[in-house]
Amino acid sequence: MVDLGGIRKPISIALVPEAEVGDYVIVHVGHAIGMIDPEEAEKTLALFAEMQAMTGAEVQS
Amino acid sequence: MVDLGGIRKPISIALVPEAEVGDYVIVHVGHAIGMIDPEEAEKTLALFAEMQAMTGAEVQS
Amino acid sequence: MKYIDEFRDGELAKQIGERIRAEADPQRSYSFMEFCGGHTHAISRYGVLELLPSNVRMVHGPGCPVCVLPIGRIDLAIRLALERDAIVCTYGDTMRVPASDSLSLIKAKARGGDIRMVYSAADALAIARANPQREVVFFAIGFETTTPPTALAIRDAQREGLANFSVLCCHVLTPSAITHILESPEVRQFGTVPIDGFVGPAHVSIVIGSAPYDHFAEEYRKPVVIAGFEPLDVMQAILMLVRQVNRGAAHVENEFTRAVTPEGNLRAQALVSEVFELRPSFEWRGLGEVPYSALKIREAFAAFDAERRFDLAYQSVPDNKACECGAILRGVKKPTDCKIFGTVCTPENPVGSCMVSSEGACAAHYTYGRFRDIPIVAATATEEVTP
Amino acid sequence: MKYIDEFRDGELAKQIGERIRAEADPQRSYSFMEFCGGHTHAISRYGVLELLPSNVRMVHGPGCPVCVLPIGRIDLAIRLALERDAIVCTYGDTMRVPASDSLSLIKAKARGGDIRMVYSAADALAIARANPQREVVFFAIGFETTTPPTALAIRDAQREGLANFSVLCCHVLTPSAITHILESPEVRQFGTVPIDGFVGPAHVSIVIGSAPYDHFAEEYRKPVVIAGFEPLDVMQAILMLVRQVNRGAAHVENEFTRAVTPEGNLRAQALVSEVFELRPSFEWRGLGEVPYSALKIREAFAAFDAERRFDLAYQSVPDNKACECGAILRGVKKPTDCKIFGTVCTPENPVGSCMVSSEGACAAHYTYGRFRDIPIVAATATEEVTP
Amino acid sequence: MRTEHDQAGAGEAPAPKPVKKNYIRPLDIKHGRIDMGHGAGGKAAAQLIEELFLAAFDNEFLRQGDDGAVLALPAFDPAEGRLVMATDGHVISPLFFPGGDIGCLSVHGTVNDVAMSGARPLYLSASFIIEEGFPLIDLQRIVQSMAAASREAGVPVVTGDTKVVEQGKGDGVFISTTGVGVLPPGVSISGRHARPGDVVLVSGSIGDHGVAVLSQRESLAFETTIQSDTAALHTLVAAMLAAAPGAVRVLRDPTRGGLATTLNEVARQSGVGMLLQEAAIPVKPQVDAACELLGLDPLYVANEGKLIAVVAPEAAEAVLAAMRAHPLGQDAARIGEVTTDPHHFVQMATRFGGRRVVDWLSGEQLPRIC
Amino acid sequence: MRTEHDQAGAGEAPAPKPVKKNYIRPLDIKHGRIDMGHGAGGKAAAQLIEELFLAAFDNEFLRQGDDGAVLALPAFDPAEGRLVMATDGHVISPLFFPGGDIGCLSVHGTVNDVAMSGARPLYLSASFIIEEGFPLIDLQRIVQSMAAASREAGVPVVTGDTKVVEQGKGDGVFISTTGVGVLPPGVSISGRHARPGDVVLVSGSIGDHGVAVLSQRESLAFETTIQSDTAALHTLVAAMLAAAPGAVRVLRDPTRGGLATTLNEVARQSGVGMLLQEAAIPVKPQVDAACELLGLDPLYVANEGKLIAVVAPEAAEAVLAAMRAHPLGQDAARIGEVTTDPHHFVQMATRFGGRRVVDWLSGEQLPRIC
Ligand code: SF4
Ligand code: SF4
Ligand SMILES: [Mg+2]
Ligand SMILES: [Mg+2]
Ligand SMILES: [Mg+2]
Ligand SMILES: [Mg+2]
Ligand SMILES: [Mg+2]
Ligand SMILES: [Mg+2]
Ligand SMILES: [Mg+2]
Ligand SMILES: [Mg+2]
Ligand SMILES: [Mg+2]
Ligand SMILES: [Mg+2]
Q: Which segments of the protein form a coiled coil according to its record (chains C, D) (predicted)?
């Protein structure tokens, strides 16, 4: 059962049996095919933010 | 193929194979089950007519 | 329509009516049973009763093929459709006969059964050819008239090697039913049903001939006049019956000589006995189990026998308690004797089988004759031919 | 929606866009191929192109699973439905891909084929369970992402002993397709397609991992950045590609670390190789026969292989002559180079497969980008972020 | 002993039993299902409408009980007329039949339902429900036939809707048409207005449409030169109303369920009986023959270009003359009269000299012929 | 080399090719068949209507091209108003869904089509096509829901028709409703009246109905608290018209094909373009999430209780305020404006900062949700 913004739908986790309630998964054609690593997601977002800082700096200059 | 008052419908004559074009047959559930003997039909009608004559006669009396 | 319109002539009808009135003994009453539903229908539809004097009465017999079909048989057909996923083909009126669980074939169809109305047994065969992956069962009902076409279909299916076609055979025999009525206690012992003679079957007789009736005439001392299905045929037959009764005679006469011979259609008879054999016993609605009154499919055609093919076990089911169909079919009661006639039981919601087909006694009376029970209308509506 | 909305932020997009503009060398142009249809869709739907400087161009690759399906394969599925009376289940967009005889699966459905859209391979399995008397074929298409669910379905069918289920396997392999493009004469010999790097697949990479791309990076000296399907992922990947090009680097980077690991989903890989093996050759629409570019079902699961079960013989069918899909899939042409783009070929009446799925290059351009070809609108509509 | 058989003889009047209340079993809503009988236009259909639809929608307009509703238009001066609205779904099979198709039928059927109120039909709407896979060429033929019928009638199709359903969830095409028209001031025609002594007229031979359609049924397939009578009757109605203003009390087109069912509806609505003369009812010989062959009664067979009228006796000849002067009423005939009858029976003196009840259609005589 | 890829980059304006004629292949009437796409409310449906239906019926009323036709009533004084007529077939599956059922939907859908002309809806007709075997209890539930909706809207069902089709020739029940209403003098609202500079408003969040219906589909089955928005909008329309008489140019309910298709229809009818602001379009988070999960675009998902309005810019705020004051317009928003565009593109500035065409629905995004 996945929950996306309040929508709940049963999906198969046969391909990511390690997934537990509360985990974020990537869903493709009704199957969870992989998990989302929250730490890595934060890192990527941080990268964007860093960029923003850089660009912001340039615009100010 | 039977013709009744201009309506033509294919029926099976497997049960009265002696029926020929122009003959009158009795049809039941899509099959001719017997033939009509024109002479006998006339006789029966004549019987009715005779009755009419008789009754007519009585009424006059 | 040649050989039809001539036999529906109103003027002649009036004349024959007057003749009957003239010849019928006013001191006695005459009760004749028309065995066939076809006659019942003709009498009702053309208003034949009004042309008869009041001391000549017609009693409806058990000759409506739909009316004598017991609930248990319809249940079998319904189960084939709903539980065995067969395409069940049947003649029109059979669709509406009430069965168990408030079902009927038409209601089973509404519940998803693949049930199809056919005009002829050959249509069922065509459906089987067109649906090779489905079981197709022809629910075959009727008297000696509908039996030969069923036999033909079975023989053709065998010749073609049609593996998905079978017949649920419910064909019954006219002579057995007549015998049964004549043997029934009401008629034999109590004399409560004063049947003075029979209007003999039209189409049935074309197939079986007039000879089989000789037996009744002799054994039970009842006159039989075989008559066509047109209203003048019926009236003429009644006149002939009145004359026999007046003479104290009891033999078989044939008003329908234009189509009925003494020996009948021999080819059809041969075909029927090639495919079918006598059933030791068969339940009729209203008459109960009647020995040797029906046909079953011979061993040689066992592959086409739905009862064997689907291993069906017949289970008798009692009729609705209020329903008087049984007594009506034996001529012991009339439709208006039934407490629910025209109220709970109507052609839209038939409770008993007599209310289904327009050949059924109750349906015929409901549809065509009801006004005669109703005083206010009868007063203005009866156009009697007063002498 | 967590992990989605954050990656669609317009403000951040503008910043990354400015960063790309700042770092891209105005003296040169950059051409990057997004292999996946998912990226094509994201670029079009979110209007990513308008945030890029004019010297950074995106080339659509052959990664739309519907677009690479050759006509002959769809013909097989249609024939299973129309001639073999099978229930054919497939993913939505596949329904509309043009096949032979002016048919498509949706038109074959209108001609009476029992063709059903499913959301997942498991749904096809459920349909097979519910229709034991019918053959149910799952028309399985897609790259490494859709393959594991198909493998699961086959394995489950075998475990259950589901006798009426089979798979028409059209699963293809991403690395083979990329190699094929890099080996194509336009790229290798003539240099007419200046691909400077690849935006690497998102979902495919979740399954196969990032390692398989190392080969291209080394062998063909092209940078690859694996990116998620959200628009910020794509922009970030482009920035990373620009930086590699500027540095003259050619290695595999992973922007999508939140879901892609170097080794991928090992369990899914194991399942796939249990059920499938390499096909010696497979026809791709636009790319022709590509050796070892697809999967077939292993002998051990032969009962579930629709090709064997129905003894299907693949027949190659040439594309519509006017259609430039092949060249477009190889990145050699663009949709507007096709003479019938937007006129004869539209999403309602697709002529080629690229016009079918919104991930297809032609459909994406028709649906989301067309206004950019049209001067009068472009004049008022372009909101460029001028420096 | 005699009373046991008194239904069998006519005379010597044994005290007849009092008539039982006209009770029928109510719908079994909890367990019941729609069966083909509910759509055949007979008593089962009437019961469904009464116990399910009328019970829910109950309003003065529906209670009029006619095929079209007469309405007030609040913004307009009622002295200028009233609005009439009628709707019909068309689900005929086969879609094409001798003399017509579902297209022209769907125009005529609704134009007629509007016209039967005495109104002048003005506009039609059309809702198409098409089955996936239906050939465009057939659809075009149907739509063009509809357009031609609409042009010929002078009643344009002004708005429409098209839906597509999956194969096996429809049957080629269904067309629901709705018509509106304007009822001139002073005209008041309704099934409720028949009075004892009124004369019953029919505009021509009955059963043609149903027989023409049945001849095309795969399972029945017979050859006939009979064509459907499908036609728009509003100009015939106009001619009748002009001939004897105020004298026409009831107009109705005997479609599903045929003449018999239509007259029973009127008898019930007006609380009267009727007595028909079988010999006076025009039936074409081929229709008679087809009914004979198929075991049908022409009184229950559908018509699509005929009307019945109940008119004041003093105006009957004038109206009949006007009908016969119109191309669609050449074979018009006087077929019976309205009687007093608390049982609302429609009876018929048979050609044979007897008399019978002509009841509502019960069950399904003919599947989907209009 | 550059021109070969100029679709890939936005700037440095390479001479853009002249736009090709907006040609689409005509219907292949001879060999073509109806497919599900023809019923999805997108371009294929529009083409079918134009090349097959309009070609046959061609008349000034149909050519108005709106969901309801504005008619003259010859017997009446035109200064008192005009008649409006609209029809819709309802073939939704499943028949019952969160927030409604086919019964209330069939009332709301047609009341709304009448209301979108600015008319006051007065009367409804209903044509039922019921599949044999349909449970009476479900039919009753539907009819009662329809009756309740009709009562609540104050628009009675005044006439009806019921047909039954065999099992496998229908799908439970189809309901075609037709509505008539009166358009007050001076009101002129049509999809043809949008002008560049006009403001586009929507009365609330989009996609609720389609998502609610899809959640019940066996094959998709997901859980959501989203309910269909099905509602009768005529009182909202009345409030809008009262707030700024003469300023409302276009009203339409974005049903099949959703907001995107409805706006494209208007753009084509009026010969204009539109520019929407994605960020301004109200979409509930659950609707957004369901679309994400199913690969849909909320712009193409059906609504049954929403309207879009194109209004004169100077009156936009007044109309918006009137909408927000009405219970059915609380979340009304200004979502874009009308532009000059010979290509009649509806474009959208994405939340992301880009821009895209918002085209007609093509093919079938969502089967039978209204
Ligand atoms: S009226 Fe009905 S219940 Fe009574 S005897 Fe006749 S068929 Fe049976
Ligand atoms: S526009 Fe159509 S025909 Fe042309 S390349 Fe694209 S898909 Fe092929
Ligand atoms: Mg009507
Ligand atoms: Mg009608
Ligand atoms: Mg519509
Ligand atoms: Mg069908
Ligand atoms: Mg009518
Ligand atoms: Mg409409
Ligand atoms: Mg609508
Ligand atoms: Mg009607
Ligand atoms: Mg169904
Ligand atoms: Mg609308």
A: none
Out of D332, D348, D354, mutate this one to test ligand 2's pocket (max ligand atoms within 8 Å of CB): namely D354
Contact residues for D300 (Cβ-Cβ < 8 A; gap 6+): none
Query: Ligand 2: does its nearest atom lie under 6 Å from the Cβ of D341?
Result: yes
Return residues with CB closer than 5 A to ligand 8 (ion). E 161; F 67, 86, 88, 113
Lowest mean pLDDT among D190-204, E235-249, F242-256: D190-204
Residues whose CB is under 5 A from ligand 5 (ion)?
A: E 161; F 88
Of the candidates E42, E43, E368, the one whose C-alpha atom is nearest the C-alpha of residue E220 is E368
Chains within contact range of chain D (3+ C-beta pairs < 8 Å): A, E, F
Residue C67: name the closest of C92, C100, C107, C94 by CA: C94
Q: What is the DSSP string of D44-79?
A: HHHTGGGGS-TTEEEEEEEE-TTTT--HHHHHHHHH
Look at chain B and report how many structural domains it folds into. 1
Which residues 6+ apart lie within 8 Å of C318 measured at CB?
A: C71
- Measured in degrees and rounded to the nearest 5, phi and psi for residue F101 equal -160, 175
Output the six-digit token pair for D54. 């004019």
The pLDDT score that the predictor gives to residue D372 is 66
The reported pLDDT for the residue numbered E364 is 63
- What's the maximum distance between 2 C-alpha atoms anywhere in chain A? 53
F308 DSSP β-pair partners: F202, F252
CATH number for position E311:
3.90.650.10
What string of H, E and C letters represents the secondary structure of C227-256? CCCCHHHHHHHHHHHHHHHHHCCCCEEECC
DSSP string, A4-43: ETTEEE--B-TT-TT--TT--EEEETTEEEEE--HHHHHH
Shared domain check, E166 and E121: yes
Burial environment of residue E21 by CB neighbours within 10 A (0 to 12, 13 to 18, 19 or more): exposed
Say if residues D299 and D241 touch (Cβ distance below 8 Å): no
Q: Write the CATH number for C35.
A: 3.40.50.11740
The first and second tokens of residue E193, run together, are: 């207005």
Amino acid at D326: G
Q: Is C168's pLDDT higher than 70?
A: yes
A8 and F285 in contact by Cβ < 8 A?
no
Measured between its terminal Cα atoms, the distance across chain F in Å is 49
CA of E78 to the centre of ligand 7 (A): 25
pTM listed for this prediction: 0.90
Per-residue confidence (pLDDT) for residue C294, from 0 to 100: 96
Total domain count, chain E:
2
Pair of tokens at residue B1:
């193929």
Count of structural domains within chain C: 1
Read off the pLDDT of residues C84-128 as tens digits, 9 standing for 90 and up: 999 999 988 888 888 999 899 999 999 999 999 888 899 999 999
Picking from F131, F132, F134 by the largest number of C CB atoms within 10 A of its own CB, the best residue to mutate is F132
User: Are D216 and D224 in contact, with CB atoms under 8 Å apart?
Assistant: yes
Our mutation pick for probing the ligand 1 site, out of C341, C353, C365, C366, counting the most ligand atoms within 8 A of Cβ, is C341
**What ipTM did this prediction achieve?**
0.89
> By residue range, what is the domain housing residue E299?
198-357
Residue D311 CB coordination number (10 Å) = 7
Under the banding of pLDDT at 50, 70 and 90, the label for residue F331 is very high
Q: What is the DSSP letter of E17?
A: P
Claim to verify: residue F171 and residue F294 sit in the same structural domain: no
**E166 & E98 share domain:** yes
For the stretch C182-238, pLDDT in tens is 787 776 666 666 789 999 999 999 999 999 999 888 888 899 999 999 999 999 999
Count the neighbouring beta carbons within 10 Å of the beta carbon of residue B57. 9
Q: Which two tokens stand for residue F138?
A: 């479900």
| pLDDT given at position E327 | 98
E113 and E136 housed in the same domain: yes
